């Protein structure tokens, strides 16, 4: 059992020279129920709270959940107790925080056999260090100073550094905070130098983050805010490029946000994420060279139609195999959705959510998909809202042309393959929609009294299947998947707001609800 004497910890003069500024702000520290944590009960990532007791088993994994284990060892919940002490002055809360931290330090020495693999995982180290720095503002003890120095050693290790990754940013913030606390200029300079280089690599000149999931644009924006505050508090000059790149993320996130305030569920972006405080761009349509088209009828209108289209470099980091995929939102409703993000658990379902079949894409019949293939944006006309994309991910060229009208709302998608190849257009419907009719290439969708129609040409043979999507972390919802009949060329028209759109078809033109589309878009 660990012994912990509060007055000895606070008053000890045996500690190493930890007398620099504490720049570990509250950013990244979770909201907690202080009374529950004081009783030894914690809850992470929305999972049911767990009784850890006064003496923590650091190998505990009650939910078999990777994110839960990361949060246990990150000790941000301990850091939140320190914040609670600073607000209340309750020394019992500080003593509990110090006791948890000392238990962790004594029970998880680096390199010892039997220690949880999460104890010194690079992201756990990066998230834990600021909490320990925050504690060091009130607790002076050799075990804490030595542990901070060990964290700095790990954070300086080039082989463990995640350049251009959100984990790398957290590593830089942690090293900066420890460097300021120890007044080690070498550490602070390394942290700022790496941070600036990583940001230049990860955030392009348009503000798109290369991690291929807009949700991480939110995270990196927030963490760069913490970083800039820490650099200022450390008394070091703030690199202008860091400020510029952080600001540029705002356009990326705002364009990726639907009119209802939720983020488009692209890559590892939970469908219930709601960004806040990001400035809107004036353009209704924005093409990001990193692989995104975002368009809407107008800003600040919850009834605005909205769509996304994916292309660009092959899958990496938090991206999915979603190239040529589209989403569509109109009349205040989701219509075409992605399978979304479920969790980081290594399950068959998680693997499927990242596959092409979990997205609204053209599938080449009998083709073998090759992961990581880039997709070209061959044509883009933001004024007419027409776009053409192509790749050879199935060994033959598949081409998708998209045209969107906002008066009235119609999305038209043309999928084509050459020669004797055949393609099927795959559509995942929002869980709120049910299929009420499927005849002659017309699929009628209903949400209460509201209706929408999908029209597929050539007509006939549309297949309706049950499906699953994830509306949020660790959540699943039953939905419907629609596949066109196989053909060399498939034209799909999505018409929100009606179950009987007026349509006429000629050899070269399709006219629907008064809007004409060339058969070849």
TrEMBL record:
Keywords: Lyase, Periplasm, Signal. It comes from the Bacteria. It is found in: Periplasm. One of its GO terms (molecular function) is lyase activity. One of its GO terms (cellular component) is periplasmic space. Gene3D superfamilies: 2.70.98.70, Chondroitin AC/alginate lyase. Pfam families: Hepar_II_III_C, Hepar_II_III_N. Residues 48-276 form the Heparin-sulfate lyase N-terminal domain. The keyword DNA damage does not apply. This is Heparin-sulfate lyase N-terminal domain-containing protein. It comes from Acrocarpospora phusangensis. The lineage of its organism: Bacteria, Bacillati, Actinomycetota, Actinomycetes, Streptosporangiales.
